[in-house]
Design goal:
Blueprint (H helix, E strand, L loop, with lengths): L7 H27 L5 H20 L1 H5 L1 H21 L7 H11 L2 H21 L6 H86 L6 H25 L3 H4 L3 H11 L4 E7 L7 H22 L3 E8 L3 E8 L32 H11 L3 E6 L5 E8 L12
Parallel strand pairs: 1-2
Antiparallel strand pairs: 2-3, 3-5, 4-5
Helix pairs in contact: 1-2, 2-4, 4-5, 5-6, 5-7, 6-7, 7-8, 10-11, 11-12
Amino acid sequence: MDVRSLTPVLRALRGCLHLLMAGLLALVAVRAAADGEPHAPAVIAVSAVLAAVYAGGLCVPAARRSQRAALGWLALLCVLWAVLLVLTADALWIAFPLFFLQLHVLPLRWGLLLVAVSTAAATASFVGHGGPATPGAVIGPFLGAAVAVGTVLGHRALYRESERRRELIEELLATRAELADAERAAGTLAERERLAREIHDTLAQGLSSIQLLLRAAERALPAGAPALTHVREARVAAQDNLAEARRFVRELTPPDLENGSLTGALERLCAAAPGPEVRFDISGEPVELPTPYEVALLRIAQSALANTVRHARAARASITLSFMDTSVALDVVDDGVGFDPAAPPAGDGPRGAGARGAGPRTEGGFGLPAMRSRAQSLGGTLTIESAPGEGTAVAITLPLPGATRPGGPHE
């Protein structure tokens, strides 16, 4: 584990473990010298070497970054400790901090095996140096090993839980950022559509009316009338401004409609849809539609098809654009799981209506009102036909304005 990733509590615990190792090594050396043991110089020397190797492994970055270097460091420590066990029974105490090191460096399975071997070696050393073979001589090292194993396993579980929470927080932050970007993009597109609709329905229509009135005035005035020149100039200015207004509307058109017609945008939408096979059909004789109509039909098709892909678990879907004498209709049909349109959204959470496999409803149940609002803003209607297990059909019908009827004038 990288030291930089440790919390202050874990740093303190690790520091205490290092101090425990240093204190126990010093205690072994001092007791060997104070008791006058025959191997006291060797015990002191091996304890000093073991302390130096332990400190060196903590200070050398390779021992923390390289698994091979860490294994070599642990092996050398275990060999020196084994030598110390042969020299003195007090080396039994070194086993406890060594247990933590073994479990930390080695994989869990091999760490537990080495802890068991170390426990047996410590007990054998104590008995071999003349210690009484009492139950405490066996239970003591065993309890130390059990405490070390329980502590390490608990720490690993807490660390995994902490990592899962950290990943979840990062995922939530990323999702929130994506949602904010999507909301900004949606707001920008909605404002563009609103401006395009306002310019088309107010400014462009007003300039068109002014141009028609000026043309009528031009025809009514005598050929040599002084005001005729001004009327012509005013009509040309109105015509130029009408062309400029229409250019603004085209520039504010959604990107899907910028480089083609509504039918082309719908064909691309069906071709790019992931999941079910989506077919696009046209019924009737296509006519040119005002930009607000094209935007509304495209957005409703996108919303309905997106929910079909996400929630309906459909194998096939179809989008049909129908041109009739007085109206234009769009139908989005799938063979998915269906839902009950009359039922309220299932909960207020992020998996609301979409969790039922609803075709037209988006998460939280706001997709259907948005589609219906688009249709009503143009004087149209939106209907939903669905039932559990019987698929879903979304139909929007918009009345054609008189200027767009086949054979009629178009502004």
